[in-house]
Structures are given as structure tokens and as C-alpha cells.
Design brief:
With 561 residues, the protein is α/β, with parallel strands linked by helices. The protein has helices at 2-13, 15-23, 25-29, 35-41, 50-95, 99-104, 107-149, 151-199, 201-207, 210-258, 263-297, 299-309, 371-378, 401-405, 422-426, 437-446, 450-454, 473-486, 503-514, 552-558; strands spanning 330-338, 348-356, 360-365, 386-391, 394-395, 408-412, 491-495, 521-525, 537-542, 545-550. It contains 20 helices and 10 strands. The strands form 2 sheets. The protein has a 6-stranded mixed sheet with strand order 6-7-8-3-9-10, sandwiched between helices. Strands 2-1-4-5 form a 4-stranded antiparallel sheet, covered by helices on one side. Helix 2 (15-23) runs antiparallel to helix 11 (263-297) and helix 7 (107-149) packs across helix 12 (299-309). The longest helix has 49 residues, at 151-199.
Length: 561
């Protein structure tokens, strides 16, 4: 920054000898300051000064330009490198938050923070701060030089123009902050509407509600754009008034200097320097003001970004690798009680249950009976308020729950499929160059989907489309089973994995599940009792507790489905 500032002053200062040679060459030739340079260059007359002075001015201008480009490149790289670190940190901290945190959040808030607010922080705060520092340094160097050239006039001018910016800051500060809040709020609403509109596109097309969603989008987008436009105007408009006043002021300065002894020729070099200095000085003032305006406009987004950066990181995030917890005998739930809020009703109350390794346990019960919550506790996605999960007599705590999760694979009702190949979706979460293709094929075969995949032209490289739209419901579920098998987990959890399927497809998926070897401990949630007929144990939940435990025949004889 210092070198660039020096180069800027040098380029401005080089105008002085150039104009002096053009207007009063003989007087400049006889100046004592110039004599050492004349002797070194071997110049004999004033006419010979023009070429070296012109070359010197050109080199000074080129040097200043190169230094400005280098400074711009360095500062830009620094800003965006800082922004990249910021984005990665926010994303990492978000991904490491507990399941309960994610459940409580609206995904639009997270997406807005990642996609918009972090960028606003980079462009609206990080870059402006760097700009203020660099512009401030150049401003200091340039102003100091101009004060040496013409102290009184430049001091008056700088104080006057500086006062204009100060007054403008006082007037616009509140407006910028208010708009900052509006921009942050409306951005979140816009992203939420985009998610809802595109996510529910089938129903929107069916119901013909496109205009409703357009109206809702417009209602949030217009205030957003108005606030953004106002902030941009406030950040740039002052420039034009100040530039006009500066030119007016310089015109009078030139007039008064021309009235001095020696006339316009003697004053022209000084006028030229002042004009060029003003041409460089005013943009620096504007850059500083615009950067301040940008910082004010992004205050709320920066605060929200900082909130995401303050998300706590769990201890296991520091571990390079996590070993699986020994699992040889059983899973025990001891006196488990859970509720989502301290003042909300109990979802589960005093649950005691043992699941033997290699067994197949099914859960049934009415909607809202706590089945999925109980499974989430078994998977350590939720922590019980009372009681504990015990694996082979070892209690699961915040210190070792990741070691237990290494045993678990989960197949939900709605399988998340990335817009990628079959191979990548089965080996989900594994870098493409690290995928074990033989393992993928074996997992697909065990899930009874391999024969279907082999009939497709691209086979395992077939793209499934966004959310797996290219596949049928049964195919998506079997891909989910294959994914679970690829993980090589020995506890497979099926959370209503067949509920959305027709009878024929359900039978196909259940056949794939039933054909799995006894090496797996299988836990299933189902609405239809018939889905669980091959389970060794069926647990009925109701009224926040276990109502019945038995085999299929026992349960069938006691309840009607």
C-alpha cells in the first residue's frame, strides 16, 4: 500500500516539470534543482529537456498504473480468500450442529446465510474495509503532497469537501441501517418462497396456483430491490455533487493564480498539479464514503453471519478418525423419557426396551405416538431428557455417540438422492475417485436393484435427476437400501420405508429387506402390521409408552389394523 501510494504521488508530481517545460522551458532549465539532472544527462539547452521530461512523466504514470493494478489484485485476492475461509467455516459449523438444531430451523434461513449473507459480508464489509484502509493511505500521501504545493487553497478545499461527506454520513446513517434490516429479512422471505414454489411444483402445476406464488414473490422482492437501490443511490450520489463543486472551486483557484505576477504561464504547472491531484483525490474520498455506506448497509447480514460463526463445535469434530463402538450383544433403552421443549408434553415416558443383536424389531402405533422419536434416540440424533441408551452395558454419551453411529444405516420414507449417478448415490458421501465399484455392485445386488440397473444404457452411471425424479418410488427405496448396505453398518433402520409405495412395490422392497442375512440387526417402523410379519419382535407404542410387545401373531390377536 505504501509503495502504491508513493507511486500515485510520483505520477501527480511528474506533471509539474512537464508543464513547466512546456510553458517556461528556459526558466525551468536554469532552476538550481534541475541542474544535477541536466549534468548527468548531458543536456546543453532548454529545448533538449522536453523529451526526457516527457519520458519521465510517462514512466511515472506507467509505474503508478502498474502499482495500482498490483494493489488491486492483492487486495481482491485477500478479500475473497478471507471470504472463502468464512464461508467454509459457516458451512462446517452448520453441518456439525445437532439434529435438534436443524429440526428447529427453517432451511431458508440457513440457505440465505450461506448463499447471500456471507457474500454480503464479503462484498459489503470485508472488501470495503480493505478499500478504506488502502484509500485512506493513498489519500494521506496525496493530500500531503498537494498541501506542500498549495497549502492554503488545498486545506480549504479538503476541509470543505470532507465536511460535505461528514454531513452526508450523519444524514444517511439511519436510512442505511434500516434498509440493511429490510434487505436481510426480505432476502430470507424470497429464498423461502423459491424453495416452496420449486419444491411443490407438481401441486402448483396441478392446482394452477402459479400467479399466487408470483404475487407472494413480488411482495417480498420489490421491497428488497427498493432497499438495495436506495442504498446504492446513497452510496454514490454524493460523488456528483462533490465533483461539480470541486471543478467550480478549481476554476476560481486557476483564476486567482493567473492574476499573480508572471501570469498564467507561471501558474499553469501548479494549476495542472492541483487539477490532477483533485482528479485522484476526489475518487479516494468517494471510495471511502461508498465503502462506509456499504458497511452500514450490510450490518445486519454481518451480525447474522457472526451468529453462525459462533455456533459451537462438538468435541468429536477435532478427531481425525472415529472407531466403532464394540457391539456384540444388545441395544438397551433404559427409562427413556423425551420431550422437544421443557414446557411441552412428553413424547416418550419411561421407555424400557432391549433389542438383541441380529434380531428384527418392528414398531407400530398411531401417528404422533413417538415411533420416529424413539428411533432418533437409538440413532443418537436426539438425546433423551431422562434415561440412557446402553450398548453392551456401555452407556452412550456425548463423548462416544459417534462411535455408536458408525454401526447404523438409515433408510427413511423419502430417500434423499443427489442429482448424480446411481453409483454416486449408492456410495453417498464418498468422493467419486474413492468409490469401491465392486462394493457398489454387491450392495445393489443385495438390495435387489442390480438387475434393473444392468438393463439401463448407462448402468451405474445413469443420472437419477434432482431428488431422484428419474426413478420410481420402489427403485428409490432400493437405492436407499443399497446405500445402507454400502456403508457396511450392522444396524439397519427402516423408518416407514415402504409407506408411500403401492402394494406390489412394497412387496418387492420388503423382499429385498427380508433377504438380508441375519448378520444385520433390523429395526423397522411401519403403519401396516403386515409389513412387520417377519419381525422377531413387534413393539406397539401409544400414549407415550410401550403398550405391547410380542411376535406378529401375538399382536395380531390383540389389535386390529
Amino acid at each position: 500500500m505504501i509503495l502504491a501510494s508513493f507511486a500515485e504521488v510520483l505520477s501527480i508530481g511528474a506533471v509539474l516539470p512537464l508543464l513547466a517545460v512546456l510553458t517556461e522551458p528556459q526558466q525551468f532549465f536554469e532552476h538550481s534543482f534541475v541542474q544535477p539532472f541536466i549534468e548527468v544527462l548531458g543536456i546543453k539547452s532548454a529545448d533538449q529537456l522536453l523529451l526526457p521530461i516527457t519520458v519521465a512523466f510517462g514512466l511515472a504514470a506507467l509505474f503508478a498504473g502498474v502499482m495500482r493494478l498490483i494493489l488491486l489484485w492483492v487486495l481482491t485476492r485477500l478479500a475473497y480468500a478471507t471470504g472463502a475461509d468464512l464461508t467454509i467455516s459457516v458451512y462446517r459449523r452448520t453441518l456439525y450442529q445437532s439434529y435438534s438444531v436443524h429440526v428447529a430451523r427453517n432451511s431458508s434461513n440457513v440457505i440465505n446465510a450461506m448463499a447471500t449473507k456471507v457474500n454480503i459480508t464479503i462484498q459489503g464489509t470485508i472488501i470495503p474495509v480493505i478499500t478504506i484502509i488502502s484509500s485512506g493511505m493513498m489519500l494521506l500521501f496525496t493530500l500531503t503532497f498537494l498541501l506542500v504545493i498549495e497549502t492554503k487553497m488545498m486545506l480549504i478545499a479538503f476541509c470543505g469537501f470532507g465536511l460535505i461527506y461528514v454531513v452526508n454520513i450523519i444524514i444517511t446513517s439511519k436510512i442505511l441501517i434500516v434498509n440493511s434490516q429490510r434487505i436481510a429479512d426480505e432476502n430470507t422471505k424470497v429464498i423461502k418462497l423459491l424453495q416452496e414454489g420449486l419444491g411443490g411444483i407438481r401441486d402448483i402445476l396441478l392446482d394452477g396456483t402459479q400467479e399466487l406464488y408470483c404475487k407472494l414473490y413480488r411482495k417480498s422482492d420489490i421491497p428488497l430491490r427498493r432497499a438495495q437501490g436506495t442504498n446504492v443511490f446513497l452510496g454514490t450520489s454524493t460523488r456528483f455533487a462533490v465533483e461539480a463543486l470541486a471543478m467550480f472551486f478549481l476554476a476560481f483557484v486557476a483564476y486567482f493564480l493567473a492574476l499573480q505576477p508572471g501570469g498564467i504561464n507561471q501558474s499553469l504547472p501548479v494549476i495542472g498539479v492541483l487539477v490532477l491531484g483533485a482528479q485522484r483525490l476526489l475518487p479516494l474520498l468517494q471510495q471511502g464514503y461508498a465503502s462506509w455506506s456499504s458497511i452500514q448497509s450490510s450490518r445486519v447480514s454481518v451480525a447474522d453471519t457472526l451468529d453462525f460463526l459462533e455456533q459451537p463445535m462438538p468435541e468429536y469434530s477435532k478427531q481425525l478418525s472415529i472407531e466403532s463402538l464394540p457391539f456384540q450383544k444388545e441395544i438397551q433403552l433404559k427409562q427413556i423419557s423425551f420431550r422437544y421443549e421443557s414446557n411441552s408434553p412428553w413424547v416418550l415416558k419411561d421407555i424400557n426396551l432391549t433389542i438383541e443383536k441380529g434380531s428384527r424389531v418392528g414398531f407400530i402405533g398411531s401417528t404422533g405416538g413417538g415411533k420416529s422419536t424413539l428411533i432418533d434416540i437409538v440413532m443418537c440424533l436426539l438425546q433423551p431428557e431422562k434415561g440412557c441408551l446402553v450398548i453392551d452395558a456401555q452407556a452412550i454419551t456425548l463423548d462416544n455417540f459417534r462411535s455408536w453411529q458408525k454401526h447404523i444405516a438409515h433408510v427413511p420414507q423419502s430417500i434423499f438422492l443427489a442429482d448424480a449417478s446411481i453409483e454416486e448415490n449408492i456410495a453417498f458421501g464418498i468422493p467419486k475417485d474413492q468409490i469401491d465399484f465392486k462394493r457398489v455392485k454387491l450392495s445393489a445386488k443385495k438390495a435387489q436393484i442390480a438387475e434393473i440397473i444392468e438393463t439401463w444404457p448407462m448402468k451405474y452411471q445413469t443420472n437419477v435427476g434432482e431428488r431422484g425424479v428419474m426413478l420410481s418410488g420402489g427403485q428409490r427405496q432400493r437405492i436407499g437400501i443399497a446405500r445402507a448396505l454400502y456403508k457396511r453398518a450392522d444396524v439397519l433402520i427402516f423408518d416407514e420405508a415402504t409407506n408411500a409405495l403401492d402394494d406390489e412395490t412394497e412387496q418387492e422392497v420388503m423382499q429385498a429387506i427380508n433377504n438380508l442375512s441375519d448378520e444385520f440387526t433390523i429395526i423397522m417402523i411401519a403403519h401396516r402390521l403386515t409389513t412387520l410379519k417377519n419381525c422377531t419382535k413387534i413393539v406397539e407404542l401409544g400414549d407415550n409408552r410401550i403398550k405391547r410387545i410380542g411376535n406378529y401373531q401375538d399382536i395380531v390377536s390383540k389389535i386390529a389394523f
